[in-house]
Amino acid sequence: MADSSPGARAVFLDRDGVINVERDYLYRVEDFEFLPGVPQALRQLQAAGWKLVVVTNQSGIARGYYGEADYERLTAHMRDALQDHGVVLDAVLRCPHLPDAAIAEYRRLCDCRKPAPGMLLRAAAALHLDLPASVVVGDKGSDLEAGRAAGVGRCLLVRSGHPPTDRDVALADGVHDDLARAAAAILQHA
Question: N or C: which end of the chain has fewer CB atoms below 10 A?
Fold first, then answer.
Protein backbone atom coordinates (compact mmCIF):
# COMPACT_ATOMS: atom_id res chain seq x y z
CA MET A 1 0.00 0.00 0.00
CA ALA A 2 1.40 3.41 -1.00
CA ASP A 3 2.06 6.03 1.64
CA SER A 4 -0.54 8.78 1.15
CA SER A 5 0.75 11.04 3.91
CA PRO A 6 1.82 14.50 2.78
CA GLY A 7 5.54 15.18 2.50
CA ALA A 8 7.51 17.61 4.59
CA ARG A 9 7.51 21.35 4.00
CA ALA A 10 10.76 22.94 2.91
CA VAL A 11 12.24 26.37 2.51
CA PHE A 12 14.38 26.41 -0.63
CA LEU A 13 17.07 29.04 -0.21
CA ASP A 14 19.34 30.66 -2.73
CA ARG A 15 22.81 31.04 -1.22
CA ASP A 16 24.53 34.24 -2.38
CA GLY A 17 22.57 37.33 -1.40
CA VAL A 18 20.13 35.36 0.78
CA ILE A 19 22.31 33.42 3.23
CA ASN A 20 25.65 35.16 2.76
CA VAL A 21 26.87 38.56 1.61
CA GLU A 22 26.84 38.68 -2.20
CA ARG A 23 30.36 38.57 -3.63
CA ASP A 24 31.04 37.86 -7.28
CA TYR A 25 31.94 34.20 -7.71
CA LEU A 26 32.43 33.52 -4.00
CA TYR A 27 34.57 30.48 -3.34
CA ARG A 28 37.11 31.44 -0.64
CA VAL A 29 36.18 30.57 2.94
CA GLU A 30 37.79 33.78 4.20
CA ASP A 31 35.35 35.81 2.04
CA PHE A 32 32.23 34.05 3.35
CA GLU A 33 30.05 36.17 5.66
CA PHE A 34 26.50 35.50 6.81
CA LEU A 35 24.01 38.26 6.23
CA PRO A 36 22.66 39.67 9.52
CA GLY A 37 20.13 37.44 11.27
CA VAL A 38 20.53 34.45 8.93
CA PRO A 39 21.57 31.74 11.43
CA GLN A 40 18.81 32.80 13.82
CA ALA A 41 16.18 32.85 11.06
CA LEU A 42 17.20 29.39 9.86
CA ARG A 43 17.13 28.05 13.41
CA GLN A 44 13.57 29.39 13.85
CA LEU A 45 12.41 27.81 10.60
CA GLN A 46 14.03 24.49 11.49
CA ALA A 47 12.50 24.54 14.97
CA ALA A 48 9.08 25.05 13.37
CA GLY A 49 9.57 21.87 11.32
CA TRP A 50 10.68 23.27 7.97
CA LYS A 51 13.32 21.38 5.98
CA LEU A 52 16.14 23.69 4.85
CA VAL A 53 17.42 23.20 1.30
CA VAL A 54 20.02 25.42 -0.37
CA VAL A 55 19.84 25.56 -4.19
CA THR A 56 22.61 27.59 -5.80
CA ASN A 57 23.81 28.26 -9.33
CA GLN A 58 27.61 28.05 -9.36
CA SER A 59 28.66 29.16 -12.84
CA GLY A 60 32.09 30.14 -11.49
CA ILE A 61 32.95 26.44 -11.76
CA ALA A 62 31.97 26.34 -15.45
CA ARG A 63 33.83 29.61 -16.07
CA GLY A 64 37.01 28.19 -14.54
CA TYR A 65 37.15 30.76 -11.72
CA TYR A 66 37.26 28.02 -9.09
CA GLY A 67 36.92 24.25 -8.93
CA GLU A 68 34.57 21.71 -7.39
CA ALA A 69 36.95 21.26 -4.44
CA ASP A 70 36.81 25.02 -3.71
CA TYR A 71 33.01 24.92 -3.82
CA GLU A 72 32.90 21.86 -1.53
CA ARG A 73 35.28 23.51 0.95
CA LEU A 74 33.09 26.63 1.14
CA THR A 75 29.94 24.52 1.49
CA ALA A 76 31.49 22.54 4.34
CA HIS A 77 32.45 25.82 6.03
CA MET A 78 28.89 27.16 5.68
CA ARG A 79 27.39 23.93 7.05
CA ASP A 80 29.84 23.91 10.00
CA ALA A 81 29.20 27.57 10.80
CA LEU A 82 25.44 26.96 10.75
CA GLN A 83 25.84 23.87 12.93
CA ASP A 84 27.61 26.09 15.47
CA HIS A 85 24.28 27.99 15.60
CA GLY A 86 22.23 24.80 15.95
CA VAL A 87 21.17 24.66 12.28
CA VAL A 88 21.49 21.55 10.13
CA LEU A 89 20.85 21.95 6.42
CA ASP A 90 18.83 19.08 4.96
CA ALA A 91 20.44 19.44 1.54
CA VAL A 92 22.72 21.73 -0.48
CA LEU A 93 22.44 21.40 -4.25
CA ARG A 94 24.43 23.27 -6.86
CA CYS A 95 24.40 23.70 -10.62
CA PRO A 96 27.88 24.19 -12.13
CA HIS A 97 26.68 24.29 -15.78
CA LEU A 98 26.58 26.95 -18.48
CA PRO A 99 25.67 26.50 -22.14
CA ASP A 100 28.80 28.45 -23.16
CA ALA A 101 31.10 27.29 -20.34
CA ALA A 102 34.85 27.77 -20.63
CA ILE A 103 35.34 24.30 -19.08
CA ALA A 104 34.04 21.69 -21.56
CA GLU A 105 32.75 19.19 -18.99
CA TYR A 106 30.30 21.83 -17.68
CA ARG A 107 29.19 23.11 -21.11
CA ARG A 108 25.56 22.14 -21.45
CA LEU A 109 21.99 23.28 -21.29
CA CYS A 110 20.80 21.48 -18.18
CA ASP A 111 17.61 21.13 -16.16
CA CYS A 112 19.24 22.30 -12.91
CA ARG A 113 20.44 25.86 -13.63
CA LYS A 114 17.83 28.21 -12.21
CA PRO A 115 15.34 29.26 -13.56
CA ALA A 116 15.02 25.55 -14.43
CA PRO A 117 13.48 23.53 -11.58
CA GLY A 118 15.84 20.52 -11.56
CA MET A 119 17.55 21.14 -8.23
CA LEU A 120 14.24 21.69 -6.45
CA LEU A 121 12.65 18.62 -8.03
CA ARG A 122 15.63 16.42 -7.10
CA ALA A 123 15.55 17.65 -3.50
CA ALA A 124 11.78 17.10 -3.35
CA ALA A 125 12.14 13.51 -4.52
CA ALA A 126 15.08 12.72 -2.22
CA LEU A 127 13.55 14.33 0.88
CA HIS A 128 9.87 13.51 0.17
CA LEU A 129 8.87 17.17 0.14
CA ASP A 130 5.41 18.65 -0.34
CA LEU A 131 6.21 21.27 -2.99
CA PRO A 132 2.85 23.12 -2.84
CA ALA A 133 3.35 23.53 0.93
CA SER A 134 6.94 24.72 0.49
CA VAL A 135 8.52 28.15 -0.02
CA VAL A 136 11.36 29.54 -2.15
CA VAL A 137 13.42 32.48 -0.87
CA GLY A 138 15.66 34.14 -3.44
CA ASP A 139 17.13 37.46 -4.47
CA LYS A 140 16.51 37.17 -8.23
CA GLY A 141 13.66 36.40 -10.55
CA SER A 142 15.39 33.20 -11.67
CA ASP A 143 15.06 31.83 -8.11
CA LEU A 144 11.33 32.50 -8.13
CA GLU A 145 10.89 31.14 -11.67
CA ALA A 146 12.53 27.87 -10.58
CA GLY A 147 10.09 27.69 -7.69
CA ARG A 148 7.09 28.31 -9.92
CA ALA A 149 8.30 25.72 -12.46
CA ALA A 150 8.71 23.14 -9.67
CA GLY A 151 5.24 23.82 -8.25
CA VAL A 152 6.42 25.44 -5.00
CA GLY A 153 3.51 27.09 -3.21
CA ARG A 154 5.07 30.46 -2.29
CA CYS A 155 8.01 32.36 -3.74
CA LEU A 156 9.52 35.19 -1.71
CA LEU A 157 12.04 37.78 -2.82
CA VAL A 158 14.63 39.39 -0.56
CA ARG A 159 16.44 42.67 -1.18
CA SER A 160 19.68 41.59 0.55
CA GLY A 161 21.44 40.48 -2.62
CA HIS A 162 20.82 41.70 -6.15
CA PRO A 163 18.61 44.80 -6.41
CA PRO A 164 15.22 43.48 -7.53
CA THR A 165 13.80 44.53 -10.88
CA ASP A 166 10.13 45.37 -11.36
CA ARG A 167 9.78 41.98 -13.08
CA ASP A 168 11.34 40.21 -10.06
CA VAL A 169 8.90 41.96 -7.72
CA ALA A 170 5.96 41.03 -9.96
CA LEU A 171 6.97 37.34 -9.75
CA ALA A 172 7.07 37.38 -5.94
CA ASP A 173 4.36 36.45 -3.48
CA GLY A 174 6.11 38.79 -1.04
CA VAL A 175 9.15 41.04 -0.93
CA HIS A 176 11.23 41.33 2.24
CA ASP A 177 14.39 43.19 3.18
CA ASP A 178 16.26 40.04 4.18
CA LEU A 179 15.95 36.39 5.17
CA ALA A 180 15.11 37.24 8.79
CA ARG A 181 12.02 39.17 7.67
CA ALA A 182 11.10 36.54 5.08
CA ALA A 183 11.36 33.83 7.77
CA ALA A 184 9.09 35.84 10.07
CA ALA A 185 6.51 36.02 7.26
CA ILE A 186 6.82 32.27 6.58
CA LEU A 187 6.32 31.46 10.26
CA GLN A 188 3.37 33.84 10.52
CA HIS A 189 1.59 32.16 7.59
CA ALA A 190 2.54 28.57 8.39
Answer: N
